[in-house]
Amino acid sequence: MPADATPRSSRAQQVAAEIEARILAERLPAGSRLGLRTELISRFEVSPSVMNEALGILRERDLITVRPGPNGGVFVANPPPQVRLGGVDLWHQGLTVDPEHLFEARAYLDTLFPPVALRRASPEDVRAMEWALHDMQAATDDPHAYLAANMRLHLAIARASRIEVLVGLYQTIVSILSATLTKATYVEGSEELRRHNLEVHSNLVAAIREQDMVAMEKIVALHRQDMVRIT
């Protein structure tokens, strides 16, 4: 093989990744037409066999469908997830901003609120956190319920901080994310990641309940690592 040659499977993976990136970058909804197979072959300057392999990769991931006939072609089946949060893949629709930006803003506030809540939380605040944590732990088969409980937990922490202006902003972010969420699925093989995520949140509530600032600083650092971007 020449030194600059690319193995067929590697090139097919690259093409699949580029098509997926376009679907995500342009926020293409299900049913959007990506083009004819022959048009895609020409656009990416690959052989029919490489394109077939690339489309096969995307079909296996349920991202595209290929329809025959005069009005056929390659169409978006399901757009890829936009955010991965603690072992949960999330899809949003109807947003005018990238959902990652909203989750990023939420993440910054999630770093700010807990140390303040540790000093100001009432017993009622702590009970609200514990109820939400219990619901997270119970949602082993329901990613929507898991995410909803996660948001309730962090909203309870925000409210316990008594920083009303920022709590209002946080409530708005949570409301927008909840209203535009169209799909949530657990990432395959993410059981250990979800276990870690639950442990971090359990320790977070415990630190607030016990007013343990040393533990809080370590937990907040771990929590920041749990959100990653899907690209």
Automatic annotation (TrEMBL):
Gene3D superfamilies xref list: GntR ligand-binding domain-like, Winged helix-like DNA-binding domain superfamily/Winged helix DNA-binding domain
Stated name of the protein: GntR domain protein
Molecular function GO labels: DNA binding; DNA-binding transcription factor activity
Membrane-spanning intervals of the chain: none
Annotated InterPro entries: GntR_C, TF_FadR/GntR_C, Tscrpt_reg_HTH_GntR, WH-like_DNA-bd_sf, WH_DNA-bd_sf
The entry's keywords: DNA-binding, Transcription, Transcription regulation
Superkingdom in the source lineage: Bacteria
Record-annotated HTH gntR-type domain positions: 9-79
Pfam entry (one): FCD
